[in-house]
From TrEMBL:
Residues 307-441 form the GGDEF domain. SUPFAM superfamilies: EAL domain-like, Nucleotide cyclase, PYP-like sensor domain (PAS domain). Residues 151-221 form the PAS domain. Residues 225-277 form the PAC domain. Pfam families: EAL, GGDEF, PAS_9. This is Cyclic Di-GMP phosphodiesterase RmdA.
Length: 714
């Protein structure tokens, strides 16, 4: 048993060996097979680079196809064997560490480009040969009398021995003579083609200019022309050719004959059609793929006035579960069944279904009235998914979420339409799935803005676009300022100042909340040091304290305690100057591992506040096991106290919470205090501190300086 190649160069040489063995028998070359292999090795390396490149270089693949012709691989069988080798072995030997599905798709496009390059080079070579033949014919017709016999002999040799079809007709189009190659192309034995005229050889696929060029030539206005033309054979089959027609003149320059040179391109055309189909259709389902769909969508969006389009973007709900539980083979069978059902839904003119990849499908409808048609199409798709799919003896329920986009042609690009459909589809999925939603430009704008903020977050932290505002914490008993809560803001270059509700959830989702939270903690602690140095103990108020919010992601980060200790030591601030606020919802059902960092911080002297208390439906008995020293009562309990008299039920609830907190040696802070009446009632109920617009809106640290200075001086 031979050893498998152990490196990229070895695998590349193995591919070149397989390629040379397949193609060498049908190549007209004087080289030995090893020499021929050495010639193919650089071409194999170029194919490998195209396969693995970041962007697909069709020109490089076409150049490899053209190089085959330069290497005398002009037999159509050489191209067929080459494409078979590329299809079977290129990804295997040169596609290491890549996505197999993507590599197969790129391999199909590469083959298409190689075939195009091969065809172009062979065509150029054929044209050169045709030109040589035409020149020989002209020379044979125009030589002087004493060389006529030799010239006719040379022309006869070229005429009879040429590999391409040659025919001569008079200016009226009557066929006078054809060579053997042309008769073989048409499958006939009569050299005169039964007395047919050239003008009888029309075909429905003739290009519009074909016969106009012919008329110009027989009138002597054109010396030659070249077109791709189809002919019907006597048995009804179609012959495709590269046709060059030249005008032959006598010694006086008078038009006398027309000379037709034909190259049979039927097999090449069929091969190109096959490669085109493979490049534009999904290998698993047979549906049009992403590239083909974008071609159709772009055509629909560029239609004339009065035309509209409708698009349904479908994503199967829970498809990953099928792959994970039953395997990818079962998932593939499910996709094939879904594709068949979708194909049956889009049978009207102007409708098509495509697979974009994975479990994502799109259905497109076009016409003047797609508002109604796209709704009906989405309904048909939902109905088609109702019946379970049988896979490996299991009945699988199929559910799908659809985003529907409809509108006039000419207003949006394909990328914008698909983005809107994708956003709408996810909106349907987040609403529970198994439904379709219509696109909403305002919802699209919100999602796009959210995405833009998400991608801008890392750079914003590096550029220093975040800043902190501080809202005072006031003692309800004597009105003194006891500290402030740090509230981070984002000064966005386009959107202005953004509150934490706009970007903190995004930071938590991306993980940026950890470095952002560390920055907020350090800046806030530094500010606390400035306050303490400026105001000392603050008179009766005691030392000013800074409250900093912790997100659930920060709670689970292993560096929370170490970061906090380092910041306190680096700034020279004692732990009693810091209070970390944790939302009640983040601690519901918290185990000892989650509480351990908070306990360590509390043991150091850092206060822990339970924020938004009363919104998390936590068991009040759990307060005894939590390492908290402050309860921050949610504003929903105290809103009714903005008016006098307050709701007696709310008063009883707040009174009970305050009594419970004090019995557990917990201080009570109230958020959202906006009126003097509210502050007075909370003082009477025994609340310790409060914050809200009644005292001050969040602002720069200098504002707290002023409030603290007034308090310290009386």
């Amino acid at each position: 048993m031979s050893a498998e190649p152990d490196g990229p160069e070895d695998r590349l040489r193995r591919f070149a060996t397989i390629w040379s063995r397949a193609v060498f028998p049908v190549t007209s070359t004087s080289s030995t097979r090893p020499e021929f292999e050495a010639h193919l090795l650089p071409l194999a390396r170029r194919l490998s680079e195209v396969l693995r490149a970041r962007g697909f270089d069709a020109e490089e693949a076409r150049a490899v196809g053209a190089a085959l012709v330069d290497a005398h691989c002009t037999d159509p069988e050489a191209l067929s064997r080459t494409l078979d080798c590329v299809d079977a072995y290129l990804v295997l030997y040169c596609g290491e560490d890549g996505d197999p599905e993507d590599l197969r798709a790129r391999s199909a496009r590469l083959q298409h480009a190689m075939a195009a390059g091969f065809a172009g080079a062979l065509r150029a070579r054929t044209l050169a040969e045709q030109e040589a033949i035409a020149q020989a014919a002209l020379k044979a017709q125009g030589v002087v009398a004493e060389a006529l016999h030799a010239s006719e002999a040379r022309f006869r040799a070229v005429f009879e021995g040429a590999a391409i079809g040659i025919g001569i007709a008079d200016l009226d189009g009557n066929v006078l003579q054809v060579n053997d190659a042309l008769m073989r192309m048409f499958g006939i034995a009569d050299p005169t083609l039964g007395g047919r005229r050239a003008t009888e050889w029309t075909h429905p696929d003739d290009a519009p200019q074909t016969w106009r060029l012919y008329e110009e030539l027989v009138r002597g206005e054109r010396e030659h022309y070249h077109v791709e033309k189809a002919f019907y054979r006597p048995d009804g089959t179609v012959l495709w050719t590269n046709l060059t027609v030249s005008l032959l003149r006598d010694a006086d320059g008078t038009p006398q004959y027309q000379l037709a040179l034909m190259e049979d391109t039927t097999e090449r055309r069929l091969l190109n059609l096959r490669l085109r189909y493979e490049a534009t259709h999904d290998a698993l389902t047979g549906l049009p793929n992403r590239s083909f769909f974008f071609e159709r969508l772009e055509k629909a969006l560029n239609a004339g006035p009065g035309q509209r389009f409708g698009l349904c973007y479908l994503d199967l709900d829970g498809f990953k579960t099928v792959n994970d539980s039953l395997g990818h083979a079962a998932g593939d069978r499910l996709l094939v069944e879904v594709a068949d059902r979708l194909q049956a839904c889009a049978t009207a003119p102007g409708e098509m279904v495509a697979r974009l990849g994975g479990d994502e499908f799109v259905a497109l409808t076009t016409g003047p009235d797609t508002r109604r048609e796209v709704d009906e199409l989405a309904g048909r798709i939902m109905n088609a998914l109702l019946a379970p799919v049988s896979v490996d003896g299991r009945e699988l329920t199929v559910r799908g979420s659809i985003g529907v986009v409809e509108g006039p042609a000419g207003e949006r690009s394909p990328a914008e339409v698909l983005r809107s459909a994708d956003i709408t589809m996810y909106r349907a999925k987040s609403a529970g799935g198994n439904r379709f939603e219509l696109a909403d430009p305002e919802a699209d704008a919100r999602v796009i803005t959210r995405h833009g903020l998400t991608t801008a977050l890392p750079a914003a932290l590096e550029r220093g676009e975040f800043f902190i505002e501080y809202q005072p914490l006031v003692h309800l008993g004597d009105g003194s300022v006891r500290g402030a809560e740090a509230l981070v803001r984002w000064l966005h270059p386009q959107h202005g100042v953004l509150g934490p509700d706009r970007f903190i959830p995004l930071a938590e989702h991306t993980g940026l909340i950890v470095p952002l939270g560390r920055w907020v903690l350090e800046q806030s602690v530094r500010q606390a040091r400035v306050w303490r140095e400026r105001y000392g103990q603050g008179g009766a108020a005691g030392p000013l304290r800074i409250n900093v919010n912790l997100s659930p992601c920060q709670l689970t980060h292993p560096g929370l305690v170490q970061d906090t200790v380092e910041i306190l030591e680096r700034t020279g601030v004692t732990p009693d100057a810091l209070c970390l606020e944790v939302t009640e919802s983040a601690l519901i059902g918290a185990d000892d591992d989650l509480l351990k960092p908070l306990r360590r911080l509390a043991e150091m002297g850092v206060d822990i506040a339970l924020d938004d208390f009363g919104t998390g439906y936590s068991n009040l008995a759990n307060l005894r096991r939590l390492p908290v020293s402050v309860l921050k009562l949610d504003r929903s309990f105290t809103q009714s106290m903005q008016r006098f008299p307050a709701d007696p039920v709310d008063l009883k609830i707040v009174e009970g919470i305050v009594a419970l907190a004090h019995s557990l040696d917990l201080a009570v802070t109230v958020e959202g205090v906006e009126t003097g009446a509210q502050a007075e009632q909370l003082r009477i109920l025994g609340c310790d501190t409060a914050q809200g617009w009644y005292y001050a809106r969040p602002g720069p640290p200098e504002r707290l300086h002023d409030l603290a200075l007034v308090d310290a001086t009386g």
